[in-house]
Amino acid sequence: GPTQSRRMGPRAQLIFRGLALALARIFGQWKDAYGPTGPRAIIQGGEMMSSESTGPSRAGHVLSIGMQKGGVSKTTNACHLAVALGESGRRVLLWDVDENYGATKVFQIPPDAFFTTMHVLTGDSTAEEAALAFDDPELDVELPQNVDFIPSSRALQGVDRALSAKDKFYNPNECLNPHIEELKALGRYDYIIIDTGPQASP
Hints:
Blueprint lengths: L1 H6 L2 H17 L3 E2 L2 E2 L2 E2 L3 E2 L16 E5 L8 H14 L4 E6 L4 H5 L10 H5 L5 H4 L16 E4 L8 H8 L10 H9 L5 E6 L6
């Protein structure tokens, strides 16, 4: 919210403003992506999409927040964008693929209690199974409106070793691709936002 934005340093605010404006340019009809006191609800064509919409009409745009440097507000940007899009009526999946699991901590999710990115990448879970639904009545944590979430954990540090043991020719730059395609094929999400870590892979 606005309070969180005021606590951001000048560099973080500049990065977030640039990201929001870039998003607005990419999707030409978007407006009011960023206000003077923090992120606003983003509205396309003056109309809100109902969060009750289902079926293959959801586009599944993928936004990956990344930089090979820590402490540059990647997680802050990813979480703000996810919440703003969710408040505007878009259905969002926020996916934490950082071994430091910053977004998982933001939403106070205990990583040992659920399937995580590590389980998805090693084949112990599908991405759909790992996604925590914001409207799941049995979920013991609170997620923002319209925002589903795949948590991460420190176990992700061993993902390269685990995947190369299965396939010595595996490409770390492509290991997310089949799981992203799986999520897009569900037709459930308007946006899939990936919060990456400073490491080169996954």
